[in-house]
Write a structure and sequence with these properties.
The protein is built from eleven helices and 14 strands. By secondary structure, the protein is an alpha/beta fold. Helix 5 crosses helix 10 and helix 6 runs parallel beside helix 10.
Amino acid sequence: HRYMTYAVEVSPKAPILVDKYILGKEVEVDVIGDGTDCLLPGIMEHIERAGVHSGDSMAVYPPQTLSDGVIEQVTRYAIQLAEALEVRGLMNIQYVVADEKVYILEVNPRASRTVPYLSKITGIPMVGLATRIMLGEKLQDMGYHGGLYPSAKSIAVKAPVFSFQKLRQVDIELGPEMKSTGEVMGLDSDFPRALAKAMIASGIDLPAKGGKVICTIDDRDKAEALPLARSLHEMGYQLVATKGTAKFLNENWVPATSVMKISEGHPNMVDIIRGGDVKLLINTLSLNREIEREGRQIRRASVEMGVPCLTSLDTAKALLKALEARRTGRDLDVETVDEYCPTRG
């Protein structure tokens, strides 16, 4: 209502665009069109749900949870778009999937940041093919056909890299505005281990057990966060939480130590973080301005102390999978990119 009021005051005659937020999973593809055929080297499934900028979201190739029906829809829509737009070269498409239905978020007739990532794991020289197409060649002339390319055997996870220690005025919560300054890729034959490699490369490297994990969870997210908190406790982490979160966890048989908010005195959450034994901060965003103001101070303290901070429960769940993979006792394999991703074509 507040935004509608402001919009009308600024320009009473201008139309107002109303978007509907769909709580679903984002999917991304880079395609190569030649005017006749359209090649999809692969489909990338985002780990964070819709609402996080694609540049700040983790993604996995090949997709791990998409049904055959969804993959068919994604492929069909991409081919139809490439044909309708008469694409000759690269095009990026972003979708959101909810209840097995695929919605198109945006289409970008250009190369995207995921092209190098997808080129490495599939072995398809995407930039080279697109360049030759723009010079007049066809996919079939270069040994490729239209449609979705067969998936590679290895699994690749793309993870964003942030520079919050250098960008001191930037809040670190994930949202629709892109804040990452780079990205890394974890490769393995196993999804959780690929996740672990990507997270380590991006700067999130937790010990297999031990240390404190701070949980400050908004009321809207508490039920979803409960299994995650229980798993962290079972792994040997000591859970520390604000009063409301600690009460909720203890009532649900997950031991947690209650710590004061910043406004309540000392020792508070910032003091605990600066104490040096905190391994991870999980802080989901709140609509309450006072709570969110303290949340920003807690997140900033975590950055200053080098403590990984996650504001998305989807990222936290991915981290849990990575931790479980590392607890098996088996060392992470190290191989060259060529060993994981043999060149094709």
